[in-house]
Design a protein that fits this description.
Helix content: 40-55%
Structural class: mainly alpha
Strand content: under 5%
Radius of gyration: 19 Å
Shape: globular
Distance between the termini: 28 Å
Order of helices and strands: HHEHHHEEHHHHHHHH
Length: 271
Amino acid sequence: MNFYGTGQPLTRAGLSKVLAILGLGPNDAGYIWTVVEVETAGLTQGFGFRVDRRPQILFERHLFRKYTNGKFDTQAPDISGPPGGYGLLSEQYSKLEKALSLCIKAKLGTEPALRSTSWGMGQVMGFNCSLGGYKSCVKMVQAMVRSEDDQLACMAGFLKANGLAEKLVRKDWSGFARMYNGSNYWQNHYDIKLAEQFQRFASGSAPNLEIRTAQVGLLFLGYAPGKIDGIIGPRTRSAIKSFRIAAGLPPSEDLDGPSYRAMCKKAGIRP
């Protein structure tokens, strides 16, 4: 399968669609950002895509063992075994490709490997594809490759199907974490992290989507803007200045209209 896309970042239309799916209003985006912030905390730059524009993933070898009935335990214990053994983020696609190769050779199709992987900015597991609104895991993965809009919509479908939007609005962080992250959520303090991030976003520090898009463009162009958080910090300002100089624009750390449009065009993303 081709996992490379264009890495389109989240848009205002995409965020509005997700709020509508969950029955939330425009002033409720803090709930969405809370989940996204916690789920992307361990991902590269806190963004739904890697620098190479493939979706962020995490391969779960215990699930691969489950969906293949342990067929590859002896042959490939690194990708078929007990929980754990995740390895580095940089190794996740090599694990997935190995799993896909083994499944195809064994005439098992692609579903066991894809179902054993979590995808995108919401890290929705492949086996939850139907709850995310897709007829197959392949269809879900194709959507994850397209854009963060699709990644977030899949997450919203999963939240709605499990009644998790209500838990968010009630600020039932432990109940939410138990259903979203599993019964061992407390080991990684997911409930505490959710509560902390909600307080942050409720105070009015929601990401600016234009700045976030600019950060994505800078990331893809190799200017190291730091975390994709929609906030112009020192690293983002330095990256903007470097881009403006390289693009022949007046030297500045400011993100104005001409530099924003030039950045998006150069990076091949929607402004």
